[in-house]
Automatic annotation (TrEMBL), chain A:
Protein's name in the database: Transmembrane protein
Transmembrane annotation, as ranges: 15-36, 48-72, 101-121
Keyword check for Membrane: yes
Keyword list, A-Z: Membrane, Transmembrane, Transmembrane helix
Keyword Transmembrane helix: yes
Taxonomic lineage of the native organism: Bacteria, Pseudomonadati, Pseudomonadota, Alphaproteobacteria, Sphingomonadales
Superkingdom of source: Bacteria
Automatic annotation (TrEMBL), chain B:
Location in the cell: Membrane
Protein name in UniProt: Cytochrome aa3 subunit 2
Role played: Subunits I and II form the functional core of the enzyme complex. Electrons originating in cytochrome c are transferred via heme a and Cu(A) to the binuclear center formed by heme a3 and Cu(B).
Residue span, Cytochrome oxidase subunit II copper A binding domain: 106-221
GO cellular component terms listed in the entry, alphabetical order: membrane
Principal place of residence: membrane
Keywords: Copper, Electron transport, Heme, Iron, Membrane, Metal-binding, Oxidoreductase, Respiratory chain, Signal, Transmembrane, Transmembrane helix, Transport
Keyword Cell division among record annotations: no
Pfam family of the protein (one): COX2
Catalytic activity from the UniProt record: 4 Fe(II)-[cytochrome c] + O2 + 8 H(+)(in) = 4 Fe(III)-[cytochrome c] + 2 H2O + 4 H(+)(out)
InterPro entries recorded: CcO_II, CcO_II-like_C, Copper_CuA, Cupredoxin, CuRO_CcO_Caa3_II, Cyt_c-like_dom, Cyt_c-like_dom_sf, Cyt_c_oxidase_su2
Source organism of the structure: Sphingobium cupriresistens
Amino acid sequence: MTDRGKWHERLKVTLWTLIVPPILWAGHFLFSYLWAAISCAKAGAFMTFPIVFVAGTLLALALIGLSGWIAWRQGGTPGSSAPHEDGTDIDRLRFIAKSTLLLAGLSFVGVLFTVLPVIFLRDCM
Amino acid sequence: MRRAWLCTPLLLATGGCNATQSTLDVFGAEAREIRHIAMILTVGAIVILAIVVALYVRAVRAPEGRLSHEAGMRMVLWVGAIGPAVILAALLVYALPAMRPRPTSPVDMVIRVEGEQFWWRVAYVPPGATPMLSANEVRVPVGRTVAFELTAQDVLHSFWIPGLAGKMDMIPGRTNRLVVRAEKAGRYRGVCAEFCGLSHALMAFDVIAMPADAFDAWLARDSVSIARSAGRGAALFDAQGCGGCHAIRGTSHVATIGPDLSHFGERLTVGAGILPPSVEATAAFIRAPQATKPGVRMPAYPQLSDADARMIATYLKGLR
């Protein structure tokens, strides 16, 4: 495998990349509120085909999915068997990768739960 | 002694049981749906709690090393993360449609209700007809869709008829819509569900769900002119300036500051759902409204003799 094919391994998960999925979730949450508020204020109702909302949601889900995938690949770095709880670089990497993966899962579900009301509710109340 | 401990929570849990103001004893389609969702959530929560407790007991009793680290992690993933996420998603998808308002058509009855400290201004607006004003009592036809248009004059209130539908805030300067459909005739009760001042807890109203024909006849009776008798009570009502705030159709009193008294005699309660509809209670309320409703805006009439207050009350009770 070339170096080019291992870009996700060169991009090491750190405490900074750990917070990417929750930040995307929070950003999507804010985006949803802004989108609903602007739609209701300008159009008086949710738009019939909410292309901006669909695009923003897909982008958030894709980025969360990508960070989860990177974390999953790095967490699966071969080595000693579980539990990985020693103060070594590889165990730290595995820990952060697993935490990122779990946060990505939570954020993915969080974004979906934010989207569901828009699918079911069509009025601005 | 042990039984007393069991009785206390049981009494607390059942103390509010009644048929007129209950989310469990419903008479409207919306409240029925809400009760259905609440039942599913409650039963589901009990089942999940039982499973969690059973797993907990099993985990505590199991000998160490019975589950491998991997198997334990897999269980945490499925039972602790994926399972709850799927259950919550299913519940969300199931419950969200209940938030969609019932569709209305232009021929549906509109009832405008305004919350004021501490009473309810009610206007029935049948399609294509003039509004009929009332207060502190709401009548709805059974089997028809009714749209409540809710607002407030002074502070936040909340309009809640537990047996009919969920609650809806009444916000000054804004009109909220609550669409309902009553399914069972009877006498019920609604309340203010948002703290609005000293007498918030004393701000209630009667709800009467009537068969549609009876409702139409009840609403139509105002289209014929009402003859009002002029007796001593009516003269006192004039002399004391009651007409400065209250309207009585068929007389010269048209003020809209206080509750409309045109059909006061048919109301089931006095003082917005708090006093029995007797001459004594009405007379006492006229002389000292603050005594039963702290913070009420109606001035007291201590100078009025008990006999005169009763005369006015008798006159009001005769307004049907």
